[in-house]
Amino acid sequence: MEETSREAVATAVQRVAGMLQRSDQLDKVEQYRRREARKKASVEARLKAAIQSQLDGVRTGLTQLHSALLDVKDIQGSLADVSKDWRQSINTIENLKDVKDAVVQHSQLASAVENLKNIFSVPEIVADTQQLIEQGELLQAHRKLMELECSRDDLMYEQYRMDSKNTSDMNLISIYFEDVQGLSDELAKQLWMVLQRSMVTVRRDPTMLVSVVRIIEREVKIDRRMVDRKKQSGFIPPGRPKRWKDKMFEVLEGTVSTRIEGTQSVTREADKMWLVRLLEITRKYVLDDLIVVKNLMVQCFPQHYDTFNRFFGLYHNAVSSRVKELAAEDLEANEIVSMLTWVLNTYKSVEMMGHPDLASECDINALEALLPQDVVDDLLSKYVKTFTSNITGWLRKALETDKKDWQKETEPEADQDGYYQTTLPAIVFQMFEQNLQVAAQIDGDFKEQVLKLCLKQMNTFLIRYREEAVTYKEEHLRDRQLPQCYVQYMIAIINNCQTFKESINSLKRKYSQSSEPTDSDAAIERTLSEVAKEGCQFLLDEVFLDLEHHLYELMTRKWLTGSHAVDTICVTVEDYFNDFNKIKKPFNQEMTSEALRRVVVEYIKAVMQKRITFKNADERREGADRMIKEADQFKFLFRKLAAVSAHETLFTVSTSITGGEDTDRLCGAIAAIAEVFKLTDPTLLFLEVTTLVSKYPDIREEHIQALLAVRGDASREMRQMIIGTLSENKVTYSAVTQPIFKDIAVPTITNTMTSMTSMATAKLLK
Predict the structure, then answer these.
(1) pTM for the complete prediction?
(2) Phi, psi of 414 (to 5 degrees)
(3) Superfamily of chain region 564-647+657-762
(4) List of residues 6+ apart from 236 with CB closer than 8 A
(5) Left (φ > 0), alpha (ψ -120 to 50) or beta: where does 712 sit?
(6) For residue range 213-230, what is the model confidence (pLDDT) as tens digits?
(7) Which of 40, 389, 485, 628 has its CA 20 to 30 A from that of 199?
(8) What are the pLDDT digits (tens) for 391-407?
(9) For residues 345 and 341, what is the distance between their CA atoms, to the nearest angstrom?
(10) How far is CA 631 from CA 233, 564, 604, 643, 655, in A?
């Protein structure tokens, strides 16, 4: 027992020394300890299973004993008869005693004669066997070992048959053959060493591996024969059964585990790509080893060993244990991706276990998962959490960088079509693209999950983008000289909305299998539309801030006597729209439509504010002609701008503008009002006003009153008659046509005085 303990300690020391050959392996001491603990737990589990099996056997035995009891009773009756016959023949048996003694003596002498040569040559055979073991002649060494064991076992068996209680003779034989057990142990060590180096041995000297397997097969047969003899006689030689076959598989399992665990060559501190390198080395080792097993090692083992599938299972279990240990470590986000990509995709791919050279020998679909699903879910959850935090920081940093560009004194870059843009969409979607490519490597469902997360983060980002655009506009209004390229960068912000939309659709087409819209889609679409529309509104606000003074001149005495306000308005609008042509569709068309509408509304507001009252027919005619001329100027300008925005020529006859409004209809409102002013016969005024109301049914009573007040020659009774008649025959207007007069307020006397004061103040300040 003490010798066995010493050998166990020596083996353990040798194994630990093999594990800790390098200083960097000290970091894995805890892992080795956990692995040994798992092995211990496995042994305990097997013991429990064995005990349970024995209990089941006892239960079965009791049942059989009950059956045997009935048989015994029958046998007792038969034995009674036999005993009676035996007593009658006892004298005959006593006469045969001498013959029996002679037979036993003859058997012992025959065994002694047969083993006499071996008995006297035991020391010599022991020495030869030891030398053969040292020379690596394992097959011959085992043959001599079998001769020694056979001689010892036969002598001990005969001694047991002659006198099983004579322990002194048994001990004498054991002492004489004590070196045999040492030879057996030494030979076993050599066998295990060959098996530990089996991957190298099978390439260099496969006959050595074949010899080891033949020796183990011999021992299996001897174990089986000795166990059968024990059932018959109750005797079994010392050291039997050896169970070398079981030990062989344990050694092979330990060899595979050690090979997988020894693949880590660097640590995270030395190389950030340590895990990628580790997994690649593991992949290469496993694939190379299994190909060697299939092509070479299978030929060295008996067919009933099912060698390839056994090694296939050993490597799978070893890899599984290793990746579980790695998954338990504090992995970073990129390491989680590398791990899961390798476990879920690479492992069963043609690059590893599904390699064409192995496909004919195994079914990879029957393999259990390397990692339990709960571990995979935990790793995915950890990655998503880290990714969410990272993407939020990346988006915030990208927006801050873009905001700094907004303050530059140089214009933003233009794309290949000449539209202004910033680098923000490209940066954002490059980040999304990279992470989605990584997610696609792991799993299709996980890719969808990451895409939804990206869209959700995109919606939050766009809300912040909108807020920053508003802040940018407000800062500009404090000092309109800064930033110098405010208009150009606001155009770039609007264009970015279209780029964002196109990029999102591209990502969804590329990475989403579902065509169903998500909750984020509508929110993103709505936010992008709001950012673009507000950007367009900010640009138009910028235009009308420059036009404000000229708009104040409309419908005044100065305007009537020859102001160039409308000329200036047209030139200013056209100048701004030279920059607005850098806005992408459909926003450029919407800008043109909204600019026309605002110009017309401001012009009509000037009429409704009653800044002038015509004194006579000449003034009314002159003012009406001027209004018609200016309406034509607006019509020509915005047809031209609409043609440019739609990539048409200046001679295009089309007058449609995106948004459903018609240039003729908007500018026609000014001309229709002019016709009211131009009329010379007051008795026909009601008809003219009725025509105006039929064309623009959203016009209200206060608008009519303001027009008649500006005309200056309508009596109170006429105004009341016109208003009363129109009220009785009120015209309804269709919602399809966007109203013009609806949002135009007619100021009261107080508002008119305030407006006049503001105009006077503005003139004084100028």
Answers:
(1) 0.66
(2) -115, 150
(3) Exocyst complex component Sec6, C-terminal domain (1.10.357.70)
(4) 226, 227, 229, 230
(5) left
(6) 999 999 999 999 888 888
(7) 40
(8) 999 999 999 999 999 99
(9) 5
(10) 127, 14, 11, 18, 15
